[in-house]
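---------- Forwarded message ----------

FYI, see the Protein rogdi homolog record below. Original note from H. follows.
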Amino acid sequence: MATAMAATAAERAMLEEEFRWLLHDEVHAVLRQLQDILKEASLRFTLSGTGTEGPAKQENFILGSCGTDQVKGVLTLQGDALSQAVSPTPCPLPIYQWHPHLLIPTPILQDVNLKMPRNNQLLHFAFREDKQWKLQQIQDARNHVTQAIYLLTNRDKSYQFKTGAEVLKLMDAVMLQLTRARNRLTTPATLTLPEIAASGLTRMFAPNLPSDLLVNVYINLNKLCLTMYQLHALQPNSTKNFRPAGGAVLHSPGAMFEWGSQRLEVSHVHKVECVIPWLNDALVFFTVSLQLCQQLKDKISVFSSYWSYRPF
């Protein structure tokens, strides 16, 4: 019995020593690793160039769909807002453009063409020079990353964690911010058609869009998506059963809604998109960071299984 008790005491002492090492050394190593990763993620939301490094970097991307050529356009990314292009003439290809004087990348609808299915009429439009449209998803994701970095860096480098519960609390707070950042990019907001019509985005273009056209722009994973809804008015004597559509990321033809004194139906939907590589980088950094946080939590929790009480 005495030998068994001695073995148990020795085992407990070894586990306590390992736990102290975990709190004093490994936790800080993981925190430094998380800081480095999230700073890289933060850089994806900022611009790599400065005003002294010469012309801004430009990359060409196609804003379109493999299934249709009804909509074609030019995309320039400049900060977190859609605005008019700085190029005086339309470019032959969509552009993903970095501007050194801005803080974060912003998509610009520089040049969009829509071929109307009914009569093959070609509509050409771009953002008005005096207008911008904030992409709240990008702005929110960046803010959550900034908050996660703050949580990791607001302690002095010599600070020593005293309990495992303190580490778990920090990891939970960081993971909450990272999950929110990731969700803002992976989960576009669902909007009703009246909400899209009331958003004001449709009125940001020059020349003005026809009254039977709605536009929505959103981020989905690593893509910026542009959706155009063509509408037709339902006649008062229409025999169709009017059922207003609810909220959705992408509405289908046949969706109905009421706007003002009119009842309208979606006749055609055109969706085009452009892959934004740095969004994919940011999502990877979020995933890796969340895994590191969970691994540290798991290591902390393992020690609690050796005791009937929590020594931390």
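H. also flagged this: The CA atoms of residues 178 and 286 lie 6 Å apart.
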